[in-house]
Amino acid sequence: MTQMTVVDVEVCVVGAGVSGLKCAHALVNDKSNKFSPSDIVVLEAQQRIGGRILTDTSSSKHGYSYDLGAAWFHDSLTNVVLQESIDDGSFNFDTDGYYDDKDIAVYAEEDDGPLDMDGLKINRVVEEMEKFIEIHFFENLGTEDMSLPQILVKYMEKYGSRLTTQQKKYCERVTRYYELWDGISWDQISAKFCVMDHNGRNLYNIKGYDFVIQKLAAGLPEGTVRKNQQIKSIDTSNASYVEVETTSGLKLKTRYVVLSVPLSILKLEPSHPYGISWNPPLPKKMSKALDSLHFGALGKVIFEFDTVWWPTDQDRFLILPKANAGNVKKELDDIPPPYTYPTFAVNYAAVHHKNPRASLVLLTQAPLTNYLEANPEKAWTYYKPMLSKLAKGSNVPDPINTITSPWTQNPYARGSYVALHPGDEAEGINHFLGTDNGYGPGDERIRFVGEHTALEGAGCVHGAYMSGQREAQWILDEWKQKASL
Amino acid sequence: MTQMTVVDVEVCVVGAGVSGLKCAHALVNDKSNKFSPSDIVVLEAQQRIGGRILTDTSSSKHGYSYDLGAAWFHDSLTNVVLQESIDDGSFNFDTDGYYDDKDIAVYAEEDDGPLDMDGLKINRVVEEMEKFIEIHFFENLGTEDMSLPQILVKYMEKYGSRLTTQQKKYCERVTRYYELWDGISWDQISAKFCVMDHNGRNLYNIKGYDFVIQKLAAGLPEGTVRKNQQIKSIDTSNASYVEVETTSGLKLKTRYVVLSVPLSILKLEPSHPYGISWNPPLPKKMSKALDSLHFGALGKVIFEFDTVWWPTDQDRFLILPKANAGNVKKELDDIPPPYTYPTFAVNYAAVHHKNPRASLVLLTQAPLTNYLEANPEKAWTYYKPMLSKLAKGSNVPDPINTITSPWTQNPYARGSYVALHPGDEAEGINHFLGTDNGYGPGDERIRFVGEHTALEGAGCVHGAYMSGQREAQWILDEWKQKASL
C-alpha cells in the first residue's frame, strides 16, 4: 500500500497550462483577499509548467528560441493576453511581434515559380467557396455536416463551370491550408465549422510565449504549483469536499476542482493509464459531449540551415498538395509520397524582421504530425522535394538541425487542441461551462477551463486564458454569495 | 378642365424598372391564369422602360455599348437573375460575363507607380478596420452611429500604434473606396452599415443589362406598359378600389397598386412637381421610415480614347484621394482640386477580355456625380491628373469622347439607389414590406417593390427583381385565399 499525504485546500487546479495558471493567479490576486496562499494548489503532471505553451531555448544550433506550441496572438483586436502584455510592458510591440500576414506565397509541384495568385484570382474563388459553405449550412440549420472535400465537390458541381481552367486546377488544393489551422487532414475536417471568423489580424509572437507563463507563475506564492503530480481520480461523492488523488500518492480534499487538463485527457477511459477515474462516473450528457468533440495534432517541424537560401520577402510559404492525394487521414507507418499533404512554412528570415533567422518553421497536421514527431529523422526526406520549390530548381542544402514538437508523443498532451470532425457539435463546448446545461448543478464544484471550453478564442492562448479568468470569477462570485447568506 | 380617361384594372404597376416589370411579368405569366392581359397595366413616367438599368448603345464613338446604371451581378452565388439567365440561355457565361475581381491596382498622388499593396499589407489592415467597425457596433447593439471617417479615428486612436508608417499613410484613404459602393462621400456614409457581406464574387455584365429588361418586356402582352405616364396621386379612400391618376390625365381604378418608383420619388413632398399626392396622407410611421433612409448618387464618367495607353493586366484602378480632403460632402459649383475624391475606374481593356476596349469607366460619388452629370465637359479636366498616374508620368492623350450617366439630372431618378447616412435605420427597409409593421394592413392594396425594399440584394438588380417577384406572389396568394373563402 502506497503512503498517502492528505492536504486540505479550497481550490485544486489540475494542470499548470495557461488556463490553470491564470485561474490560480486570479484567485490568489483577487483584491478581496478571500484566499490565503495555502488555499490554492496547482497540480501539474509534468516536470515543467506551461502545457501547450512551450518555448524551446535549448534545441537550436543557432541559439534561437522556438515556440513548439502556441506562437500567434490570434484575434489581435480583442486579444486580452496581448493587450495586457502591452499595457504591463512585458511585450514590446515593435520588437516582440510581427504581423506575418502578407499574402501567402503559393507553389505547386507542376510549376516552377510561385503561383500568380492575384492574376489567377484564386483567393477570390477560395473566399467564394467559404461563402458557399456558410450559406450551405446556415441557411438551413439542420443541414447535415460533411467533410471539407465533400462540400467542395458540391461547390464544383454547382459552380465549377464558372471557374477558369487554372482556378479549377488549384483552388481546392489551396483550401487544404485549413489542415494547418485544425491540425487534421481535410477529409477529417467538419465543413460546417471549418470557416473561421477572426477579430483582427494574427500577430506572430517572436518574443516567445513563455513570458506569459512566467508572468503568471511569478504571481503565485512559492509552493503553489506541485509538479510531477498526475491526476488519477476525482471523487465527488462527499458533499463537504471533493477528493482528488494523484498517481504519486498525493490526496487532496478540496472545495473546488478546476480541471485544466486537455480535452485529450478528458476523452480517455478511466481505466487508461493517463485517464481520470470519476466517482460517481461522469454524467451521460458529459460523456456524450466529450464524444462530440475531437482533438487535433498540429505539430511543428523546424529546419535550421547554415544560411538563408529561400526568398526573404515572403512571410509564409504554402506548397500545394497534389490534386488527388486520396485518403490522407490514414495513420502513417512511413513517410508518405511527396505532395501528399500541404506544406506550410513560416519564414523566420522574414518574421524575425530585425534579426533574420536561417530557419523555416513548418506546421504539420495529423496523421503526419504523429509520424514525424515519432520519427524526426525522416522529416527532411519528406519535405525536401516540396521545400526545393522555394529555390527555383537549384539544389538546396541539407539542414544543420531538425527540431520537432513533442505533442503526440507526450502522454499528457496527446495532440494539440480541439478540432471538429464532420458531425461534431461545436455546441459541445458549452457543456464545459458549469451551468445547468453543463457538468450539472449537482457537481458545480468541478470547473472546466482550457482552450476547449472557450466559446471565444477556442484553441487559442487567449481563449484558454479567459477561461481561467472566467472560472476564477465564478468561484469568487459563489464565495461572495455564500458569505452574504 | 383636363379630359380624364378612366380604366379599370386589377393591378396597376407604377414604374417599368426591373422590379415593376418583374412583378407584372410574374402576374401575367402565373400558371393559375388568374389574370387576363388586360387586368395588368404598367405606368411608366418616361419615354423608355428599364429605370436604372440603361444600356447606352448610341453615345460611343467606337460603337461600344455601356451600362450607365447597374453593371454587375453582385452576390453571384445566390443571384437569381444571373442563374435564370444562364439557365434560359440568354446569358452566355463565357462571353457575356467577367469576374473583374483581381486585387485593385492602387495609386497615390505622392508615388510614381502602383502601391505594393501586398508588401505593405494594406488590405490586412483595411480588413481589420472593417472588423473593428463590426465589433464596435454589434457587440453593443445600441451603440450610436457615426460617419466612416469618425469610426476610423476611433480605430486609429486605439490601434494606430500597431500600424507601420506606410499603413498609417494609406489605409484610411483606401477605405474611401466605399464611396464608390454607396455613391456618397465617406463623411456621409453610415459607419454602422457600411461593411457589406457578399454572397460570392461580383460578375461584370459585359453583355449589357438591357437584355434582362427586354426579356421581361417581351413576356408582357402588347399595351401593358404605358409610357409617359407620370404618377400624380394615389387615393385609397374608397374601400372597393384604389384610384391612381397621372399628370397626363389618365385615371385608373385598380384593386392593387404596385409602387415601383425610386425611393427618391417617395421621399418628395406631395406638392413637389415629381412627388406623389396621397389621399389620405401616408401614415406617420411610413413617412418616418422614408426619413430614416437616404438615396445616393453613384454615377459614371466614361472616357473613350483612340488607343489603350494604360495597363491592360489590371481589372480596376483606384487612385487614392489626398489625406486631408476636408468636407467632401459639400455641393460643388466647380470641379474640386485634384485628389479630392477617390477615383475608381473599371478597365474596359481587361473586362472585355475577348475584345479589349479603349475606354475607362469611372464610378463617381455624390456630390461629384451631381456636378459632373450637369457639366460633363469638365470631367476630363478633373480626372486627368489622377488618370495620368496610370501612364507612369508620360503624357496621356485626351479622350475622343466623354459619356456621363444621367441619374442626378433625370427628375424621375434623382440619383442612384439607397445609401445609408449616419443615424439611418437599415430596418426602415422593412417598412416597405406589406406586413403589420409596414405600410399597414388597412392599405395592403399598396405594395412596394424596388431595390430599396429588398432585405437581400438592397441596391442591386437582383434585389429589385426578387422584390417584384415577392409582391406578385403576395397578390397571387391573397387572390387564392379570397377565392377559397
TrEMBL record, chains A, B:
Tell me a GO biological process for this protein: pantothenate biosynthetic process
Query: Which top-level group of life is the source organism from?
Result: Eukaryota
What Gene3D superfamilies does this protein map onto?
Answer: 3.90.660.10, FAD/NAD(P)-binding domain
State which residue ranges cross the membrane: none
Q: Name one GO molecular function term.
A: polyamine oxidase activity
> What is the name of this protein?
Amine oxidase domain-containing protein
Among Pfam families, the record links this protein to:
Amino_oxidase
What lineage does UniProt assign to this protein's organism? Answer: Eukaryota, Fungi, Dikarya, Ascomycota, Saccharomycotina
* PANTHER family per UniProt: FLAVIN MONOAMINE OXIDASE, LYSINE-SPECIFIC HISTONE DEMETHYLASE 2
Where is each Amine oxidase domain found?
18-475
